[in-house]
Design goal:
Chain lengths: 443, 252
């Protein structure tokens, strides 16, 4: 038992608690939602912002990193919406149904909700909360217990809007859904978005989230995802933004039996980024790929934290994370695989690779395996190193100048990770981002 | 075309080349033979500018210009090409991308326009066909999953596309069976021309039956200890390198 005496609250924690009291009346939701928020606010009050003595956050001390909490973002004005028109370009030419959130609020006029294919329902979370939507009432906050997570509690207390997506049993979405989250304000603000995606049995869907920001906002976003038996779901999250952006994201996914789930997190910006992913296997025979690639420079800090919980047997999980680190950046990977006693025949493999382009960059890696079953295959591996001088020489000996040679090798390194994305158009778009990143590195 | 003057090279603080002199005129093919450890590969690497190969004294002049201070890519753009003894594998970089980037980088440095995609593809298809390289292989990562022979053929393909003026072939025959050796040496012979020079580094005489040199040098203990015609290669085949190792030991 932890009998730690609570520290004195930081200014940021006090400000967030005050923000909840002040905003509470204006936040969407019926009485049940208010009760949910109150309970979450109380939990946040007890937990506070996570800090280095919380094992899961030892490399990302949010309490120290967030000195002051930014004011809660208001509804977007016309200028903000105008700026958001171009948001989400990061996915390139990929044809997708855009659902746009500006400063954490759904903007129907920028979104494409016309002619939804049969079986697809999309609504705004604010509307769903206000109207007591049955799906939300049934699932929200229940996909995965997250009692110990202060940032998720904070998200639940202050969630304003987000997407509620339902894909009915057996439905196949031809067009991917693109959730565009743009924080466009000039002044730094706190943004809390919460989404719920439920893909029923045998359905097929691809959901892309892109997050971009204009200033040093503090974004706390969470997505609860339910993947039904035999469903096939791709989820890709792309995060970019300026070097003073704080972006904390929580994905909570529960996967049914014989399903396919492909998750990919692409990080190419932000000052402090924490992507935490919780995946639970509820049914047998499921294959999941949990992958990611991060490109870091300056003093960026990007933390990918993964908890994969094999509760059912015969599932396969593959985790592959690659990070390219330049300047004084710091990349963190924490991967925990839990195999419950009943989860026999689990096959779980985790691999992380860090490419250090600078002597001052740092990559921290913490793999954990907790295995309670006896007939399983589990493994993890990690590598970190600089660019291969031999390969660079080979390229240069053919007339390729040093910066181009390095760029080719970095592209090759990231490309291997991006192969995990099934959609070729999106793969190409992300490689474009890598090329752009490399170009800006040279300048 | 190539003048190497009094070249001294150290690798990891150890002196490998100890005053090497070599002159190769355009149109000529010179073979450099020598026992293991004599400095053959060091010569190849220092010419191409491999990091860690430090010239402490002497010059390497290409058309009268000292290339020692140049980066490897500048040397390549000036027309120097090294066919590697052990070509490296580059996962994730398709051979086609590699070839095209190299070709266009060299053209750019020489002030020539980049090749269009159809022009480039035509060049590659022709060159690959002659070397019996399947185009499908060129869509894979550079040398990834290639056999030893395929890697060497890929080196010659690069040479054929880049059209260098000075080709340095480092043990191109190592690891090749007879059929692959024939394909590779035919590829090299097609590139012989009156304005191109070649330096063929080899341990064995058999390559020189197929790529017939104009001049043969014996390298021992970091210096050229004997120079002769193509018959010198046959002589070495019969008597071995021992006599020269003795000579080198006696040299000041």
């Amino acid at each position: 038992m932890n009998a730690e005496v609570r520290q004195i609250k930081t200014n940021a924690e006090l400000a967030l608690a005050q923000a909840y009291s002040a905003e509470k009346a204006r936040l969407p939701g019926d009485r049940k939602v208010v009760a949910l928020r109150d309970a979450a606010a109380a939990r946040f009050d007890a937990l506070g912002l996570p800090h280095r003595r919380v094992e899961e956050w030892k490399y990302t001390d949010l309490r120290a990193l967030i000195r002051e909490a930014k004011p809660i973002a208001g509804a977007p004005n016309a200028a903000g919406k105008a700026r958001a028109k171009d948001a989400g370009k990061v996915i390139g030419d990929m044809d997708a149904r855009r659902v746009v959130f500006v400063d954490g609020t759904f903007v129907p006029e920028l979104s494409d909700l016309a002619n939804l294919s049969p079986g697809l329902t999309i609504r705004s979370m604010a509307q769903a909360l206000a109207e007591g939507d049955a799906l939300v009432a049934d699932r929200l906050g229940k996909v995965m217990p997250a009692d110990g997570e202060g940032v998720i509690a904070l998200n639940t207390a202050l969630m304003r809007d987000g997407a509620v997506i339902h894909v009915a049993k057996g439905a196949t979405l031809e067009r991917p859904i693109h959730l565009v989250f743009a924080a466009t304000g000039d002044k730094a603000a706190s943004v809390f978005t919460r989404s719920l995606v439920v893909i029923e049995q045998g359905a097929r869907a691809m959901v892309v989230e892109s997050h971009d920001a204009s200033a040093g906002h503090q974004v706390n976003t969470a997505l609860e995802l339910v993947v039904g038996d035999n469903a096939h779901v791709d989820h890709i999250k792309i995060t970019s933004g300026p070097s003073d952006l704080v972006h904390v994201s929580s994905l909570m996914a529960a996967i049914g039996a014989n399903a396919r789930f492909n998750d990919f997190a692409f990080n190419i910006g932000g000052g402090v980024v924490r992507n935490q992913t919780f995946v639970r296997f509820d049914g047998e025979g499921t294959h999941a790929g949990l992958r990611g690639a991060s490109l870091l420079k300056g003093k960026q800090h990007i933390d990918s934290t993964l908890v994969v919980d094999h509760q059912a047997g015969g599932c396969q999980s593959r985790e592959v994370f690659a990070a390219v680190l330049d300047d004084e950046s710091r990349g963190v990977f924490q991967g925990k695989i839990v195999v419950r006693q009943r989860a026999q025949k689990t096959d779980a493999r985790m691999m992380t690779r860090a490419l250090l382009l600078s002597d001052e960059a740092e990559a921290d890696n913490k793999p954990e395996l907790e295995i309670f079953a006896d007939d399983v295959q589990c493994g993890h591996g990690a590598t970190s190193g600089a660019l291969d001088e031999g390969l660079k020489f080979y390229l240069m000996a053919r007339g390729i100048p040093e910066p181009e040679a390095e760029a080719l090798l970095v592209q090759a390194f990231v490309g291997e990770a991006i192969e995990g994305i099934e959609h070729a158009g999106l793969r190409d778009a992300l490689m474009e981002q890598v090329v752009g990143w490399l170009r800006s590195r040279g300048s | 075309m190539l003048e190497v003057k009094n070249l001294h090279v150290t690798v990891d603080g150890k002196q490998i080349l100890k005053g090497l002199d070599l002159t190769v005129n355009k149109g000529e093919v010179h073979a450099i033979m020598g026992p293991n450890g004599s400095g053959k590969s060091t010569l190849a690497y220092v010419m191409a500018g491999k990091p860690g190969y430090e010239a402490t004294e002497g010059q390497i002049l290409l058309d009268g210009e000292d290339i020692l201070a140049m980066q490897s890519d500048e040397r390549a753009a000036k027309g120097l090409f090294l066919a590697f003894q052990y070509p490296l594998e580059i996962p994730g970089v398709a051979t086609m991308t590699f070839l095209r980037t190299a070709l266009n980088a060299q053209r750019k440095k020489r002030g020539e326009p980049e090749l269009s995609t159809p022009e480039f593809l035509k060049l590659v298809r022709e060159a690959a066909g002659k070397l019996e390289i399947d185009m499908e292989m060129l869509r894979r990562g550079v040398n990834v999953g290639f056999s030893g022979g395929e890697k060497k053929r890929n080196e010659i393909l690069q040479m054929a596309l880049l059209q260098p003026r000075l080709c340095v072939l480092d043990e191109t025959d190592s690891g090749l069976d007879i059929d692959a050796l024939k394909i590779v040496s035919d590829g090299v012979n097609r590139l012989r021309s009156s304005d191109r020079a070649m330096v063929v580094i080899t341990h064995y005489q058999r390559l020189l039956d197929l790529i017939v040199p104009d001049v043969v040098h014996v390298l021992s203990a970091g210096r050229i200890v004997k120079t002769g015609g193509k018959e010198l290669a046959l002589e070495l085949e019969a008597s071995g390198y021992a006599q020269f190792q003795g000579e080198a030991a006696l040299a000041p």
